Amino acid sequence: APSSSSRRVALVTGASSGIGERTALRLQEAGFTVYAVARRVERMKGLADAGIHVVAMDVTDDESMTSGVARIIEEQGRIDVLVNNAGYGSYGAVEDVPIDEARRQFEVNVFGLARLTQLVTPHMRALADEPLARRCRIVNISSIGGKFYEPLGAWYHATKFAVEGFSDSLRIELAPFGIDVVIIEPGPIRTEWSAISRESLTETSRGGAYEGQAEKVRKVMERADRPGMSSRPDAVAKKIVSAVLANTPRAR
Ligand code: NDP
């Protein structure tokens, strides 16, 4: 069993870009041994150069998640922190979004997060005797869109509302084992998220009953992405690290 003086280990998903990339760097700075995972490993060269362990992982692929977690346990013997950050926005009128695309978004934003949680919690329960300051944490990246909603975002909001309910229930379930579950709900952050989400509106913008709404939503997204209206991903990364390090009393 790992001793209580071992370096704590963090796993960050969606680390090839944006919030995840900054979070990997900030956690390393805070003294964690960090595993950064995403599909595009070539985009994580900077992290590897900084001494972060880079692993290819697709959160829609069970074998990829299973072998990734097994590798960390083999190399480090423990996982103290899981940051479930991988996710994307797919927008469009409900009439226009193919149900397979809606399912894909749930696979990444909800089932990927849930499956990794399932794989990691047995290893976190094994660390239940760690002192309070070193208690395990699962940080789930929801969104302000997990609380409020706009038109043409039904599926994105459905995934993030699902993350909220899942996380709130899980928090109570894991409290007896000293594992805390944290939800982060960012507002607009300047990453690749906005461009990907705007691109997903293309189908709905192409004439038809929802064209006007699509243009409006696209404009709101464009405005929200500007400096002054949005924050840098590093601001979220710092919040995540302070939530991970917060010495909160054990929930009853
Ligand atoms: P980015 O698009 O910059 O980063 C998204 C990350 O998710 C990438 O590293 C990508 O890696 C990863 N990802 C996507 N699909 C998969 C997959 N199937 N398997 C593994 N990784 C995947 O966006 P952000 O940094 O902004 O997004 C991070 C999180 O923050 C998301 O959950 C997003 O919904 C949330 N959020 C973002 C906001 C914003 O305004 N930016 C606001 C509120 C919440 P790769 O493609 O290499 O696999």
Automatic annotation (TrEMBL):
The lineage is:
Bacteria, Bacillati, Actinomycetota, Actinomycetes, Propionibacteriales
Query: What domain of life does the native source organism fall in?
Result: Bacteria
Residues represented out of the complete protein? 6 to 257 of 297
Q: Keywords in UniProt for this one? A: Oxidoreductase
Protein name listed in UniProt:
Oxidoreductase
Its family remark reads: Belongs to the short-chain dehydrogenases/reductases (SDR) family.
Asked if the Swiss-Prot or TrEMBL record annotates the protein with the keyword NAD, the reply is no
